[in-house]
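Hey, resending since the last one bounced:
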Amino acid sequence: MINYPEIAHTPLFNYILKRLLLIIPTLWGIITINFIVIQFLPGGPVEQTIAELTMPNVSATDRLDTKSTINESNNDSVQSPLTQSVSEETLDRIHKMYGFDKPPLVRYWNLLTAYLVFDLGTSYYRNASVIEIIQEKLPVSMSLGIWSTLLLYSISIPLGIKKATHQGSQFDIRTTNLLLIGNAMPTFLFAIIMIIFFASGEFLNILPLRGLVSDHFDSLPWYGQIIDYLWHLVLPITSIVIGGFATLTLLTKNSFLDEIHKVYVATARLKGLNDDEVLYGHIFRNALLIIIASIPGAIIEMFFTGSLLIEIIFSLDGLGLLSYEATIQRDYPVVFGTLYLFSLLGLLVNLISDITYRLVDPRIDFSRQSS
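The structure tokens again:
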């Protein structure tokens, strides 16, 4: 029978509780710094709206590049040429529409209290809440992130182990050269090369170029939908992971090489264990720790940052593209909402990584970290 009071006083439980409590000030600091930064950024939604009203045939960005602007977030009495082109009544209505009629401290407090209950607000330019927008874009980023991470780790770890066990061989040298070439090639350049050879018709036209599914996806049988979905993933997934093979493979190789030369390995061999028993029974668990440490960063990068150019090139409307467009448009609710969720997810993933350390190696002691 589980003794819950006893568990509640274990070092692991105390460590987890401490890390969960530290998430609160960390998120507060991230949101506070970014809120302060935007107070000094020109070209926000107020001025972009005025530019659209006064010069409908010219983009707001072009207009702001050629005129001196003010920071509408400060809501002071100084006016730019852009704000002088509309009446005071219209200007007040625009400020009220975006919530800039309130003092910064009031807006800051409202932001914090709303985020406590995960109310991320409504987009300035999309007729939907931030949560709904993220839910709409999430499947695309999940498709890219999950499949990229699985492919990357399922190939890099076995390859790194084989390179470590065949250190200095022709296989090791040749694969290292190929990995370094792939690592040196930018993701977008490899994506363009893949498009030219496999999707442009110049050489071959066997892979789809845009989207995650075909236009007739709904009319396909269930097995046809799976094949169509996976076929659309070939180009973007390959482009994303090609540059990550080198880092993870060499990390795995070096980690295993470091463990192979330790005393306990020689002792295990003297006891009569064969190479596979030593490798997977002793070395694997210890060498795996540094690989686990790279998982949180890999997940965050694959989901939210590493796929931005890929989403643009292959017309994939995911979270990376959403964050980029929101930043350009000064869509502050979307910017803050995605930042808040991404930061929270990153902190939780790092905590899960630490717990996984304990599951992989029971010798890890959290008593010092939790004290």
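The two ends are 28 Å apart (CA to CA).

Sorry for the duplicate.
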